[in-house]
Fold this protein.
Amino acid sequence: MRHLALAAALALFAQGAAAETFRFTAIPDEDQARLVERFAKVADYLEERLGVEVEYVPVKSYSAAVTAFRNDQVQLAWFGGLSGVQARRLVPGSVALAQGSEDDAFMSYFIAHHSTGLERADALPDAIEDMSLTFGSRTSTSGRLMPEHFFRQRFDDADPEAFFSRVGYSGDHSRTIALVEAGTWDLGAVNYTVWEAAVADGRVDTDRVEVIWATPPYPDYNWTLRGDADERFGEGFTDRVQAAFLEMDDPELLASFPREAFIPADNALYAPIEEVAEELGLLR
Amino acid sequence: MESEQRRPLVAFAAEDLGHGRDRHGRLDSVVLPRLTLALHEGERVALLGQSGSGKSTLLAELRERLGRRAAWCPQHHGLVPALAVYHNVYMGRLPEHSALANLWNLVRPLRQPWREVEALCEQLGLAGLLRRPVGRLSGGQRQRVAIARALYQGRALFLGDEPVASVDPHQALRLLALIDARHTTQVVALHQRELALTHFDRVWGLRDGRLVIDAPSRDLRLADLDALYPDADAPAGSPREAATPAMPGPEALPCARGRPASSAVVSDLQVGAALRAGPAMSEALSRHPHPGHGRHWWRGDSTGLKLARHTLALVALAVLLMPFADLAIHTREPWTELGRMALGMAWPAWGSLESPLTAIGLTVAVAIWGTLAGVVLGFPLALLFARSRLVRAGCAFVRAIHELFWALLFLQVFGLSALTALAALAIPYAGIFAKVYAEILEQAPRAPRDALPPGSGRLSRFVYAELPLAWAQLVAYTRYRFECALRASVLLGFVGLPTLGFHLETAFREGRYHEAGALLWLFYLLIASLPWWGHRRLVPVLLVGGAWLLGPWPSVDGALLWRFVSEDIWPPALLAGDWAGLTAWLSRIPALGPAIGNTLLLGLLGTVGALAVALLLWPLASRHFGNRASRLAGRGLLVALRSTPELMLAFLFLLLLGPSLLPAWLALALHNGALIAFLVARHADALAPGMPGLPASGRYAYELLPRLYPGMLALLYYRAEVILRETAILGMLGVATLGFYIEEGFDYLLFDVAFFLLLVTAALNIAVDALSRRLRPREAPIEDPCSR
């Protein structure tokens, strides 16, 4: 029995060593219809460019993406600003390689149900006090972290829990929009690309819910690679991965993210995010 | 002859005989006070007396003192219905074979014993029945099997408690002759006075616990024996007589129990009657409080009143605490979104599903292998459950943590693999199986075990006289758990395992309701068609197919596992031994008071709500109400309500009613209420209505509900534990339950905080479980553990 177990363990180990597959994931915050199918195309593209077997691993939450990265179950991931910071802290040596051309000046929208009577303004109005607000996922950069940061800036570092009548975490940008549209919550904080896409598709009734404020720009999404990639996949692998993204020009592939193009990024770019997260107690 | 009779085999000199002994060796209840009696070798004694006069007590004492010298034929046979005649007879010599031989004998009868048993059975008129299960024999045949088992023991002494009670007089003579031929000495309890005088050397007559006759039978006349039987119609002052009729209905029992327990000995007769009345009754009996204690002043009340009072207290508590709950309603314009959902359900987009068959396959595979692993882990624990406090505590702990949180824990170590899914199911299920299996085994009738000859090995005793009696219930419970596992398997998709729930949650979250509708319908169909595809014979196919789908066993990284259990889940300050740091760490833990308060409140409200929903809904699916179409619709509704994940129900109500405790409450009440209603309806369908011509309302209120309510309440108390566990996963509504903060801990990757809160949750669950067990009225026995 013991021999059998040993043999099985060895077989598994051998299998792991012989064919090292390069795996990547992406945080689930955009349209996920046919996600596996779309990302399988990205995997094919990378396989062609990198000359190793590439596999896409779907995950359900921001934290699952970070955990998979930390545990080396994936070596590359498309993170949000905060999840990227979390991941790079947990895996020393890992680097942010690229971001979307939109990501160096990303934004969040505060949206409001029409019954609040709020109009689009240059600053968050005082009237939002004692209304109810829903963020997106707790660790979303655009759905929680930066909106809360700018909210605190505007209202003298007020605690949202005390300032608003009720604070919720819908878990997802699409859901935030749906819930504010239904009037379940008065206000919502949402990723601007998701909002724009929903408006463009006619999935949202702008008579009922409208943007009342856009946050200042901040850096967001990024591709992060583990530091030991060169060692494991060959010299210059990191550069080749970066080049593969920067040179990606197939609109169909780019639409998966959805980005116009990818531009270089580095860890230092996300220092502001890290600072804000530390202030809010999301990192320690 | 006279010289032989000088040697007493057993002698009592003014001794008290009775039942149960306390720590100081005193009898709990004395049945035969100051008995003086001697049994001599070579005597054939008839033991006479009314039911309850102490015959069984005397026989039990004789049996104990004679030990291996005496063969024993118990009252009401003590046979194992599920086993063949051969195996029942074979049990007479269980101690004479090794445990291994006994095990093998169950698979394939041993040659030598088979020949012996065959010969014996031929003499008893049981030829050709050796392979037939005892459960399919007539009463007279069973009687003969019981005698065959005693004869097979091959002892010089025979002790029988009414061994010829259920055969005709002619048969009785033949059987007694057979017993005569093989035993030199015998003591046989009888009801037939004539037989006692014609067939036996000596008569012992008992009346109200006193030996009133002890004389050679040749010196006695029938009229002398009549003194043992005062007018049979008189009340006779013995409450046990209430149970004497051959077949008291299960309802009769609480009344019998409700009387002052002056001599409340659970007589063998009662147990026997219970055995005949079926498992429900014997379970009720096994829950009978220990005899002789009259400490419950309310024992005299009727069951119905007590249960009603109990329910009202629960409702009153909920109403009283309701002002503390956040039940605000903010409805504005939910209809567009709800309309989209309704359209999605009405026009499911079958075509847009991504590999639905694989998702279904995986859902089933995870459920079936998770259940199997739970059984394999839980069964050995069930055997230790009653004996080991450690095992009980461990099981309570693993049960107390929701499958979803187990999955989140294992996700950190095993990643998104089949292993995570299986472990997340198997570990809590092992705890549940251990508890329920232990209860089922404990409630199995004890008579067959007591009938075994002394010296039977533990293992042999278990496989012959315990396991077969509980088998049907164990299987039924496991099947029920499998349905729960299917639901849990879907739920595991919510954290990323690629079961049906994975796609369902995504589609639902992103508002692709046509796709979500298709997935939900698929799942409803899967649950509704379970009786067909989950057939016993298909289980091996499902297991093999499931193993293939679950794919190759993922490699486990020991270092990750070690890092997780040794570092991640402990506060860094604790590991560093920095006590000041630990205090700072504790101060950053979210406020536990309100979180625990919210969790308990939601649990209580959910429980009361589930009761209300169950009371309303169960008739919809019961054969006693409505017509074929209405029942089909009712069953469909119950399938839908119990299979729709609570999170989705909660989201629906969130849209409708706005963020507060209310959506969570409604979701819990509907989901769990529908589950209880389904089980109660199934229970109701097994009842035969005895009052024809009642209108539906009368049937509900006067006939069925009184019989169903105790079981329903018991189910509810069990479900309360589950509801409390489920409050944890409704944190997304912004209701700050413990689960809300646990999820937060996982989100922020603060596993130490999450783990600490999980420990708090587990402790809370264990405390509530213990409390509910204490508060649960004894009138609400878990009649059918299979339905939990």
User: Anything to note?
Assistant: The longest helix of chain B spans residues 458-492.
